[in-house]
Amino acid sequence: MSTQKLSLEEKFKLVAETIRSYPAQLRQAWDEISKMYIPNEYKNVDNIVFCGMGGSALGARMVDSYAFDRLRVPFEIFNEYKLPNYVNNKSLVILSSYSGTTEETLEATYEAIKKQAKIFGITTGGGLSEIIIKEKLSGYIFEPTHNPSGQPRMSIGYASGAVLALLSKLSLITVTNEEIEETIATMNEVLTEYQEGTPSEKNLAKKYADKLKGKIPIIVASEHLVGTAHTIKNQFNESAKTFCALFEIPELNHHLMEGLKNPEKLRNLFTFFFINSKLYAQKIQKRYPLTSEVVEKNGVDYLIYSPRSVNRLSQVYETLVFGSFVVYFLTHEY
């Protein structure tokens, strides 16, 4: 469905509907790829290279962070026209373009074919689907039934679910059906808490959106939540038309704290948005209160969000729902 002729309010409603559809997106991608035939030789690879731009790469970033210490082989996200020099016939190259028309991804596809890599495409159509069909490549050409907004950045359940399902099917990571079901249940639970009809006094997403109006969000995350934080940053940029930066603990502790002094007038514009988790390594968790203390001493505001769910995958998607609603409400504010 074309959204070009819709009013602004109608477009807002479609975005909210899409956020509520994240669980359905994840389930569709997981179920459909789990039933696909993929050549057995795809399991025997030395590395994985993911090619995608903008919203089409967000799902891979989420999976990469989620599985940062669980993947059986190296995983690299490449946002260029060309592929890394090391790609060969022992490489799995995943090419993702929601529309199927992204020129960088299409060029990378042709190069992957020349290098005789093991190729898997993810798209809704366009040139990428044509190449997949013509060259008889493996790929997931899906119907985005649960993305009424039509925005690639809002198809994150499809994008992440497809990569999760593919890597799990190839035994490159281990993700169970039970984990997917638990993750979907977690999303459905928090969707009720943060959706439009929940009053502001009970809705943390609305409260944070109000505090971020007129501010530059500086998102801080670690380990399995960095990819989700990147997705939220993208939504701040594209949906709320807001400049937003992302830093990781512990890396930021080695440089960023020295950079809060000048220019002084920026301090009133910044609001740090810390995403902490009880599943981070203990050494990482301890850095969050210490870092927020330094931020406060520099006269900069900060917010803290901590997912409540108890396993890594559920936290990835719980945080996604929260962040998407924060951006949704902030977009309304503007």
From TrEMBL:
GO terms of molecular function: carbohydrate derivative binding; glucose-6-phosphate isomerase activity; mannose-6-phosphate isomerase activity
Name of the molecule in the record: SIS domain-containing protein
Pfam families in alphabetical order: bact-PGI_C
Ranges of residues in domain SIS: 38-178
InterPro entries reported in the protein's UniProt record: Glu6P/Mann6P_isomerase_C, SIS_dom, SIS_dom_sf
Protein family (similarity comment): Belongs to the PGI/PMI family.
KW Coiled coil (keyword) present: no
Alphabetic keyword roster: Isomerase
GO terms (BP aspect): carbohydrate derivative metabolic process; carbohydrate metabolic process
